[in-house]
Design brief:
It is built from 1 helix and 8 strands, in the order αββββββββ. The protein is mainly β. It has one domain. Strands 1, 4, 5, 6 and 7 form a 5-stranded antiparallel β-sheet that branches. Strands 3-2-8 form a 3-stranded antiparallel β-sheet, with no helix packed on it. The longest helix has 10 residues. The chain is globular, with a radius of gyration of 14 Å.
Length: 128
């Protein structure tokens, strides 16, 4: 929770940030970009699930969203490994509204958060 509060503070970029109440979703929608092939792929993951994307293994640890405004943002805890070496390339929170704040640094692939997914059938952007 301390890490999430820090991220929320940084997302304010100099404004006074009050800690928001957040809820965890059962999954998230991520998007991957292969910079060489110029293809994008959507990854729909449940919490605790991994997916293979090119040479990467992408694991979703958690996805949180603001309780008061679920469509406004998503915060996903991701662990991304190189499949061949097992090296951890990214391990931390990514923020949908600020993908460059905490980004995967890879010469071929980009991965970013689109939204959290909930189990209800609402069809709203933040908690689909």
């Amino acid at each position: 929770m301390r890490t999430l509060a820090l991220i929320l503070g940084l997302a304010g970029l100099g404004t006074v940030a009050m800690a928001q109440e957040v809820a965890s979703a059962p999954g998230a929608m991520l998007r991957g970009l292969d910079k060489v092939a110029t293809d994008t792929t959507d990854l729909d993951l449940a919490v605790g699930q991994s997916a293979t994307y090119g040479r990467l293994d992408v694991r979703l640890g958690d996805c949180r969203y603001p309780v008061d405004d679920p469509d406004s943002d998503a915060y996903a805890y991701l662990t991304i490994r190189d499949r061949s070496s097992g090296e951890v390339l990214f391990d931390g929170w990514m923020i949908a509204s600020s993908p460059a704040l905490s980004a995967l640094d890879h010469p071929r692939y980009d991965v970013w958060v689109i939204r959290c997914n909930s189990s209800d059938a609402e069809g709203t952007g933040g908690t689909q």
